[in-house]
Design a protein that fits this description.
448 residues; Rossmann fold; 2 domains; seven-stranded parallel sheet
Length: 448
């Protein structure tokens, strides 16, 4: 348990923290079935015509949000500030960000959200437009560091043709599901094969989807299983023999099915495909969550430790994905989600093998997303930062506390935070979300 949060649970602890100048971490609002999308109304505005604003507002209103005009000057606390910056075409136009946000930020409720929409700078036009659109991510990342009370800010870059495919992404970043996702930039492209046009129930965005999860018996994997089942999915859990008992209990609890298999085995992909078809008739998505560490400084690391980490964390996801494609188990509308790590972005002492494997996962996203996009299959990854798991409990106290505090949200995340982010990627409506690596790190300052 976070010792700062423990101290905050009593008056003496709160007084002590105040005296030593330690700011308590905010309490984050996380998703609860039946809860409203926002903690208050949204305010929405655009710089210019606002071609992105209309579909975004429509998605929010369909999800039950109340959306006010950007000119609203009431004192009501806001659950969301939404701004379409897609029409800013030169550096002078960036002043609209300065004109719009300050007064509204003072009204942002605890765990409120800021979502900014923009266009890909690469296709913006002349140098002035490219510079202006390229400036928007810098603004959003800096703004995210200024927010307090568990509020977050994120940017959605919308490519041509993706305007009508905003719903799942805007609602994810507006909601409590994105509690530990902060300062991120997500890019949407026009889907080659659009996903389901049906609007799922608010609390069942994965209704009817069949999803396989590797490393499913504990930690983040188990959180994924429970979150996906809660959201209506049929889940196939995979883990090694050592986790067979908790895996079977978990899958029985959520009404799923399980496969006891080593992901490095040559037949792992075929077995996952067969089990999915036998239990549920098909497979809609695979989450490559299984991973191991074998930490040592490089000069002291054995070849066996190196080989094991690369085999499980990188080679297994690559091979299983290819096997599922060859088996015809993943077809149009399919989802592949990989689990990278902040270590794959920033590196980490004593983890050359782990960091290499998790950086390699990002390479898989780049390669697979480009290759599979014409088939209507999306490929994305999450990169968790400091997440409160059994693994992080074993980290030395000083390093553990630094990991918790070195983020804009000043705390570690929970396994469910990773699960919620993956759930958004698996959503049938997330057909425009591909090729992204999204950090679930509370805008961790390491690797930023």
């Amino acid at each position: 348990m976070d010792p700062i949060q423990t101290l905050l649970s009593n008056g003496t602890g709160r007084t002590l923290l105040k005296r030593v100048g330690v700011a308590p971490p905010p309490t984050l609002r996380r998703h609860e079935p039946g809860a409203p999308l926002l903690v208050g109304p949204a305010v929405a505005a655009a710089a210019g015509a606002g071609a992105l604003l209309k579909p975004a507002v429509a998605a929010l209103e369909a999800a039950g949000a109340r959306v006010l005009a950007g000119t609203d000057e009431s004192a009501e606390r806001l659950g969301l500030i939404l701004f379409d910056a897609g029409d800013i075409s030169d550096p002078a136009g960036l002043v609209s960000l300065h004109e719009f946000f300050p007064a509204l930020l003072r009204r942002l409720a605890p765990s409120g959200r800021v979502v900014v929409l923009s266009r890909p700078h690469e296709s913006a036009g002349d140098a002035a437009a490219v510079a202006a659109q390229r400036a928007v991510p810098g603004f959003v990342r800096a703004l995210a560091k200024e927010l307090r009370g568990g509020a977050t800010a994120n940017l959605v870059v919308v490519g041509a043709g993706a305007e009508e495919h905003l719903a799942s992404t805007v609602c994810f970043f507006a909601s409590a599901r994105s509690a530990f996702v902060d300062g991120q930039v997500v890019r949407l492209g026009a889907p080659t094969v659009p996903g389901s046009a049906a609007e799922p129930a608010a609390d069942a965005p994965l209704a009817g989807r069949v999803v396989a999860v590797t490393g499913a018996s504990r930690g983040i994997g188990a959180a994924m299983v429970r979150a996906f089942a809660r959201d209506g999915a049929h889940v196939v859990g995979i883990d090694v023999a050592a986790g067979a008992s908790p895996l079977a209990e978990l899958m029985a609890d959520v009404g799923g099915t399980h496969v006891v298999a080593d992901v490095t085995a040559p037949d792992a992909g075929a077995r996952i495909a067969a089990a999915s078809r036998a239990a549920f008739g098909r497979l809609d998505g695979i989450v490559h969550n299984a991973g191991i560490t074998r930490d040592k400084k490089l000069v002291n690391m054995s070849k066996a430790a190196w080989d094991a980490v690369i085999a499980v964390n990188l080679e297994a996801p690559r091979r299983i994905t290819l096997d599922l494609l060859e088996e015809g188990a993943l077809t149009a509308g399919g989802r592949v989600v990989l689990v990278s790590s902040i270590a794959g972005i920033a590196g980490n002492l004593g983890q050359t093998n782990y960091a290499a494997s998790k950086a390699g996962v990002i390479g898989l996203v780049e390669a697979f997303s480009a290759a599979l996009e014409p088939q209507g299959i999306t490929v994305n990854a999450v990169a968790p930062g400091f997440i409160e798991t059994a693994m992080t409990k074993a980290v030395p106290f000083g390093i553990r506390e630094a990991g918790r505090r070195l983020s804009s949200l000043r705390q570690g995340g929970l396994p469910v935070d990773v699960a919620e982010t993956v759930g958004w990627m698996l959503d049938a409506r997330s057909d425009a979300v591909t090729g992204n690596v999204v950090r679930v790190c509370g805008q961790g300052l390491i690797g930023a």
